[in-house]
Amino acid sequence: MIVPPHTALLIIDVQQGLIDGPPAAIRAPQILVQLNAAIALARTRAMPILFVQHDGPPDSPLAAGSHAWQLHEALARQPIDKVIRKRASDAFCQTALKATLEQLAIDNLWLAGYASDFCLDSTVRSAAMQGYAVTVIADAHTSKDRPHLGGEQVIAHHNWLWANLDTPVHPVRVMPLHQLAALSGND
């Protein structure tokens, strides 16, 4: 399998309040480790890294500027990394994401982050339907327990769902980070 040269890592909504809670995201410490390993891998391949940050309404816990709204302090961010702000689940909806990807000549995305069943899912589907080649890092996204399903089940369900999603151009790949790391820069 080849990692095309026009690939970017997109990390969705890994923000203080969403990861640390309350309640905390499922496997929060391990997910942060995996995300930083994905960031390190992307840097070795000279891939652009984009962080998506959700802006909640002014009276919400994710109000812009609040502590909960901040990108997680444990992320290995650098000044060169781009931040895309959004107000809807889909990171493409009324944001600069598509224009940024076009400017960078990106047509392949590695996706990870929070929440598997909301913003990550919406963005995976949107990217795939727009013709991007999408790879979800299976062990670098998380959610929380939901009223009808545990967080681990949410994650497993979405990994299965994305791998079986009908898309118009490229199938969505769902791979653990160690498999992505084993691919050469041309794989």
Automatic annotation (TrEMBL):
A single Pfam family, by name? Isochorismatase
**What is the name attached to this protein's record?**
Isochorismatase family protein
The record's section on InterPro entries has: Isochorismatase-like_dom (IPR000868), Isochorismatase-like_hydrls (IPR050272), Isochorismatase-like_sf (IPR036380)
Task: Write the record's keywords in alphabetical order, separated by commas.
Answer: Hydrolase
GO molecular function ontology, one term from the record: hydrolase activity
Source superkingdom: Bacteria
* Protein species of origin: Craterilacuibacter sinensis
Location of the Isochorismatase-like domain: 7-145
